[in-house]
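Structure ticket #2291
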Amino acid sequence: MTTVSSMSERQRTVWMFVALIVVGSIAPFVLYPTFLMKVLCFALFACAFNLLLGFAGLLSFGHAAFFGGSAYITGYLCRDLGLSPELGLLAGAAFGGVLGALFGMLAIRREGIYFAMITLGLAQLVYFVAVQMKFTGGEDGMQGIPRGKLFGLVDLSDNIAMYFFVFAVFLGGFWLIHRTIHSPFGQILKAIRDNEPRAISLGYDVARFKLLAFVISASLAGLAGSMKSLVFQLASLADVHWHTSGQVVLMTLLGGLGTILGPVAGAITIVSLEDLLADKVGSWVTVIMGAIFVICVLLFRRGVVGEIGALLGKKPASGPAGH
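Resolution: structure written out below.
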């Protein structure tokens, strides 16, 4: 029974990635590539955040610091120092990881709302640094970031080429998150989330596991921000603002906290609604997003993907009873 169960789990994983690859490969020929690239950037950002909140149980209100901070670093390295886009992305992800380690060493000393407030306060420090530093461009943002040539061969100024590069990076990040969640490390994170005192009694160094989860999440959030800066050739204060931290929380909860595909669904929904409503309702878009969030929390507590999974999960259970 165990072998059959594990085989079916592997098969589901394979089919999930096959479906993602097929849909992602067709999408740019049906929809606007720049819109799709924005969705992919925020989907990776939301997946990274979900790793921390959904599987480690740590609510961070400061993830915009990694997302926006890495966007500035990649922009500076590619525009002012002439680095290639792949090296710029790696540097952005590394910066996110280092910043995550610094934030994590301070924040994981506390729990619950205190942890969240510490991350928010530290992120605001990054925001004010971005306002004051000259190389960031202040309120005007860092403009004119070149997309460059991938490995010196592929010209990323072409939207289709850029899209498939972003899509490949997203798949890599998504695979890493999926592998982390289904590894022994991921199982320990779930144990810490569900019952931290018991995890401590079993001899696990809880603080170390939390810090590692924080660093991985921050690195991937930084990678997402770096990609966005290359796609739009811009890094702005909006990327590092606390509103972006709130936005990724909304995406994760709307899609389904603690699910694999939930953050992706949440990112697609929020980005699509913003693009659809921005020209029609203006500033009211934030009010509409707030209303959607309230409705989701009241009616779909597991999120969209979580509720669908729960409905599908009931069907096999009811089958044997019928017999």
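Closing remark: The first strand starts at residue 142 and ends at 143.
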